[in-house]
Specification:
The chain is α+β, with helices and mostly antiparallel strands. It has seven helices and 14 strands. Strands 5, 6, 7, 8, 9, 10, 11, 12, 13 and 14 form a ten-stranded mixed beta sheet that branches. A four-stranded antiparallel beta sheet has the order 1-4-2-3.
Length: 346
């Protein structure tokens, strides 16, 4: 929220008898025409006064005869600014740029992450050559990776490239292969997951498989069609109370046919193999139980891994101008490789 200056005016209103007992945030929203959530933020930030005294509780009751005042900060300029942030560039020409995104980097500005995004870095590196199709907040962005997912991304530097790449994504002809580490092992070890995905009714930050649509797309018309192909690569350790050969952790390769929000994370959790470190869909209970040195080392490594174990390893597409089929691969990043190295000791 932008801080007000000494020159920012205060809007005032005196409470009458009919206002007595109204909630502060509700009453102020009526005469400022701001949303109650916006009013609550301003109250909690100290931008509301009662007879000159700062008040910070949105639930306070209005008292007749008191003059209330609110100071509304000027609007935030949402235009991203270029920032000199290093990029791991795999390829670049006048039409597009391919990068290996690090985990921890948000792709485009959003509330709570207005700076240090991939867009800020691209604006510094590319100047005004990025495609403008998605507007000033998402210049050049054709697809995205979650903040804590690492790996290959392609960004458009011209509107022609943006349109051509977007059509490939829409037709599901882009090759996208991810490496992930999951608890347990999928059954069967290779397969196709098909469902509809929609926002979780109980947690707006999460996506969920629409009830009844796992393997039956016609069971509902709610949500978006999502298809993930997965393949077991190798396992680590022996799961307790399971048949011999059942690993504690599996390295899985996922190929996306569609690219919905959190798709791999939701699908793998749905089949009982949540990604290690996933704060939304992972099982956060203690990981290992016996006292061997190897398992204690693994427990320590996994506890220190603060993101979902998901890496966009491979990206393939048709170049918008040359029509050449281009492929790019990004090695597993150091933090994820460190976990794999420790898992090998089991």
């Amino acid at each position: 929220m932008t801080k007000p200056t000494d020159k920012t005016p205060w809007q005032t209103q005196s409470a009458g008898e009919s206002d007595q007992g109204e909630r502060l945030d509700k009453w102020i929203s009526q005469w400022t025409e701001l949303s109650r959530s916006r009013i609550r933020d301003l109250i909690e930030a100290g931008h509301v006064r009662a007879d000159g005294d700062i008040i910070t509780k949105p639930t306070l009751k209005i008292r007749a005869g008191i003059e209330y005042a609110i100071q509304i900060p000027p609007p935030v300029d949402d235009t991203p600014r270029p920032e000199n942030i290093p990029l791991n560039i795999l390829y670049e020409d006048d039409q597009l740029i391919v990068i290996d995104k690090t985990s921890g980097m948000t792709v485009h500005p959003a509330p709570g992450s207005r700076s240090a995004t991939l867009v800020n870095a691209l604006l510094y590196h590319c100047g005004d050559t990025l495609s403008g199709i998605n507007g000033v907040l998402r210049p050049g962005i054709v697809h995205r990776l979650d903040k804590d997912t690492s790996g290959v991304m392609v960004v458009a530097k011209s509107d022609k490239a943006h349109n051509y790449l977007a059509k490939q994504f829409a037709k599901h002809t882009i090759d996208r292969i991810y490496t992930c580490l999951t608890r347990g092992v999928p059954k069967p070890r290779s397969g196709r997951i098909e469902s509809r995905l929609a926002r979780n009714n109980k947690d707006r930050k999460k996506q969920a498989v629409v009830a009844g649509t796992f393997g039956d797309m016609e069971a509902s018309d709610h949500g978006r069609h999502a298809i993930t192909h997965y393949k077991y690569i190798r396992g680590f350790g022996q799961a307790q109370n399971a048949s011999v050969g059942t690993p504690k952790v599996s390295q899985i390769e996922c190929q996306l046919e569609t690219g919905r929000t959190h798709q791999i994370r939701v699908h793998m959790a749905h089949i009982g193999c949540p990604l290690l470190g996933d704060p939304l869909y992972g099982q956060q209970r203690a990981f290992l139980t016996n006292k061997s040195d190897a398992e204690q080392s693994v427990a320590t490594a996994i506890a220190a891994f603060k993101r979902q174990a998901l890496h966009a390893r491979h990206l393939g597409f048709i170049h918008p101008v040359s029509k050449e089929h281009m492929t790019f691969d990004a090695p597993i990043p150091r933090d994820m490789q460190d976990v794999i190295d420790v898992l090998k000791t089991l």
